[in-house]
Design a protein that fits this description.
This protein has five helices and 19 strands. It has 258 residues and is of the alpha/beta class.
């Protein structure tokens, strides 16, 4: 299994013989509703568009997960698995093979199974998707949730080999947490028993500007997480990949359930 972190929430995951592009933001700026004074993300140079993509996986319909300028650069015939809100965006962009996954639903592509789990709440009524990606032959499983909101349903998948989720809390005064990685990560590690945890949503080469970034309070770090896991006798390895580097994850195959 190989992973390439492409900054922010964007990943290239190679699993089950497939190349999965997750929540890609690779070109242009990241701006919500054209309000660049409120929030703007940029990077010194654009990421190259990965080749030979078998599937695009989208967890949310917001621009930092379903980024229109990037999606316009990709082949519209690539298969897409998406939350209901993200599916609306890619259909409007002309994608022709879009599968919408509601919570609990699964999609199988050859030796890869993808299951949608309840993820991040967006507003008072919308709950977006997290995903469990399972290599059927080996049983190796990856869990991805980009804001640190983990449904109790995810515990049923334990053990999970790789977890991709935030390590940090990001909070706005009066509005509360945007990302709640620090507050949720220990319980997640206890329940899923992952071999490896990797961070998402923060760090990398991205430069964030605007009024929101002046107000956001951030707490937590990879080193704090390592200390926390050690104190709780949890052997999970915390990895911090360098953006753009393709890494082979040092995983041990576990016995498949019978």
């Amino acid at each position: 299994m190989y992973l390439t972190w492409l900054d922010s929430n964007s990943w290239l995951l190679e699993i089950g013989g497939k190349r999965i592009l997750i929540d890609p933001w690779l070109v242009g700026s990241l701006i919500f509703s054209n309000l660049d004074w409120l929030f703007k993300g940029s990077r010194p140079q654009e990421r190259p568009i990965p080749e030979n993509i078998d599937l695009i996986l989208l967890s949310q319909g917001l621009e930092d997960h379903t980024h229109p300028p990037t999606l316009k650069q990709l082949d519209r015939t690539i298969k897409v698995i998406a939350s209901p809100s993200a599916a609306k965006v890619v259909k409007q962009l002309g994608y022709t093979q879009v599968t919408t996954l509601a919570h609990g639903e699964t999609f199988t592509l050859d030796e890869l199974e993808i299951k949608a789990t309840p993820g991040s709440p967006i507003g008072p009524t919308l709950v977006e998707n997290g995903y469990l990606l399972k290599e059927l032959e080996s049983g190796l499983t990856v869990y991805y949730e980009p804001h640190g909101y983990h449904s109790p349903q995810v515990k049923q998948a334990a053990p999970v080999d790789v977890v991709i989720t935030p390590f940090v809390d990001m909070t706005l005064p009066l509005l509360g947490p945007i990302i709640q990685g620090k507050n949720s990560i220990l319980e997640l590690a206890k329940s899923l028993q992952p071999q490896i945890i990797l961070p998402t949503a923060a760090g990398g080469d991205v430069i964030f500007e605007g009024l929101l970034m002046k107000l956001v309070q951030t707490k937590g770090s990879a080193e704090e997480l390592r200390t926390l896991l050690e104190k709780n006798n949890i052997s999970t390895k915390v990895m911090e990949p360098t953006p753009g580097d393709r890494i082979e994850l040092p995983l041990e195959k576990r016995a498949l359930a019978t």
